[in-house]
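REQUEST ID: PR-0412
SUBMITTED BY: lab tech R.K.
PRIORITY: routine
TASK: structure prediction, single protein chain
INPUT:
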Amino acid sequence: MAPSRKPVPEPVPSALRAFLGRHSGIDRLRVALSGGRDSTVLLHALSEQDRDRRALPLHVHHGLHPLADRQAEHCLHFAATLGYACEVREVRVPESPKEGVEAAARRLRYQALAAGASPGDCILTAHHAADQAETFLLAALKGSGPSGLAAMPELRRLGACWLGRPLLGVAGSALAAYAAARDLSWVEDPTNEDRRFDRNFLRREVLPRLATRFPAERRLALAAELQGEVVDVLDGLLDPLLERLQGPDPQSLDLRQFSAQPPARRPWLLRRFIARAGAAIPRRVPLLEFLRQLEEAGADRCPALDWDGYALRSHRGVLYLLGPSETDRAELPQGLAWPAGARELRLPDGRVLTLEELRDAGVTDTADLSVVFRHGGEWLRQPDGTRRSLKNLMQERGIPPWRRSRIPLIQRRGELVAVLWSR
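STATUS: complete
OUTPUT:
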């Protein structure tokens, strides 16, 4: 009698089970449910392992095509048949966005999926091996380096939570087989057939042609995986060096030490410095031009680079990375009264000032206090009774110009009595 063979496990449930096992510290799952075949398969497979129905299916309604309402209805109904309450979140893509409709829709979609998530939450998407191959090709055609060619990681940070792709190693044909075996239905997004979009062109025109001669999906996904290993090794070499190059605060570099590095190493150091802060990496040409200006700048020049809400600025031998809170040019309020008896005051930009900070600055009585921001010409009375120009005090402390207007000033009946320097 021939020995019995164990049944070969199905690729989709096996990959999902392995992912959840590798990342057992996840608190709660959010499932990006578009209504298409792949996300429908993902939620169905998860439902067989999520016995308590703790996962939250989320559908992002962007209204970009006539079937958008039907997709949302399908998601609500399909999730309900599995015992889930799907949540629909609407976004509106602006007309003719600078980044392009495809990129703007993707950015808004991820923002909607991550909104309100906790640090231990993980958003699951149904990207699979064919999607990985497409992403690799797109990056290669853009002339990307190892980070771009690494395509999509299995797990990465997304805002306050995580973004997970448990099916990256699963072939698209395996998802099709799973859906057919269970007679699943879905709603096709008509924009997936629009070959004006680069990804659709590769999916419909290029990859099928490559597949007639090569196992393109598998090999391109493997190439992306190998590039990811290269990135891991490179980051491991750059991180200790960046620690030694750190400036006066975590998001800064000592320019003298940075400029002493070999020229070919500087772009890699700067990209890693930016990536460690969770910022998007600027394009190669503007980054290299910024480095050229930085090298050639005289003492009276301060090169700058702005992109996607972030910025690089130099000041007194230090290179700073500014986040969206520092690059936002929205006007700060003229004055905020400190509420009587309150232990804290929340600013419009989200910062919270506390009574303890006031006391550390020498203010013990909150009567008639207000918080204002610098407009120029302010003077501060010192403990010895003399008065000093706020501008000179900020220069002495080495505070960069872009931060000076955001430092909270404490007034009492119109007189400046304290400055919350650490803010």
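NOTES: The longest strand covers residues 56-61.
REVIEWED BY: pending
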